[in-house]
Write a structure and sequence with these properties.
The protein is of the alpha/beta class. The protein has one domain: Rossmann fold (3-Layer(aba) Sandwich). The protein contains 4 helices and 9 strands; from the N terminus they run E-H-E-H-E-E-E-H-E-E-E-E-H. Strands 4-3-2-5-6-7 form a 6-stranded mixed beta sheet, sandwiched between helices. A 3-stranded antiparallel beta sheet has the order 1-9-8. Helix 2 links the parallel strand 2 and strand 3. The protein binds inosinic acid and magnesium ion.
């Protein structure tokens, strides 16, 4: 048994993801012409996206990280967001780009956006690799979306189910039996 056996089907291949990131990086480069953006990745799901995106950006930039957690079941967001790890440095007058893995209900991004805007950055933009428009509960303006995907729970390329599958190079749909066989009380 490997992690691949838990995948019902591959939604986005490694090649599709990498090619899209190059396109996103080109658009981002054009937008920040002459500026040095601060990329803020939302841990932990965005680490692979951040690592690939920054390597595709030919412009100077800085990075920082923050971690959030939403209360509730493993596959549902509840709208209550808390900060587990804040940024290392102030963002006042910086050109901030939030780097997200996936926008689902939109609650996490909505909260983060308000939080960071209160710190008076020069600009605030958002790039997300994935978006599930069918699941949106609150409207958030997203500047760049890698892929719009259907309403299915996905794993891989940073995204987890109970902390597993983040290391997959592709994004796949988890077999429903994986949820059913879990014995983790936190799941
Ligand atoms: P939102 O607040 O509902 O927009 O979603 C916030 C977080 O839920 C994302 O950043 C992910 O960490 C997680 N999430 C939502 N959908 C999925 C999924 O399909 N697979 C893995 N994590 C997900
Ligand atoms: Mg996330």
């Amino acid at each position: 048994m490997t992690m691949h056996d838990d995948v019902a089907r591959i939604l986005l291949t490694e090649d599709q993801i990498q090619q899209r990131i190059v396109d996103l990086a080109n658009e981002i480069t054009t937008t920040y012409d002459g500026r040095q953006p601060l990329l803020i990745a939302v841990l932990k799901g965005s680490v692979l996206f951040m690592a690939d995106l920054m390597r595709s950006l030919p412009i100077a930039h800085a990075i920082d990280f923050l971690a959030t957690s939403s209360y509730g079941a493993a596959t549902e967001s509840t709208g209550v967001v808390r900060i587990l790890k804040d940024l290392d440095d102030p963002i006042e007058d910086k050109d901030v780009l939030i780097v997200e893995d996936i926008v689902d209900s939109g609650y996490t991004l909505h909260y983060l956006r308000e939080l960071l805007l209160a710190r008076r950055p020069a600009s605030l933009r958002i790039v997300t690799l994935l978006s599930k428009p069918a699941r949106r509960r609150i409207d958030v303006t997203i500047d760049w979306i890698g892929f719009e995907i259907p309403d299915e729970f996905v794993i891989g390329y940073g995204l987890d189910y109970n902390e597993h599958y983040r290391n997959l190079r592709y994004i796949g749909v988890l077999k429903p039996e994986v949820y059913l066989r879990t014995t983790d009380p936190a799941a």
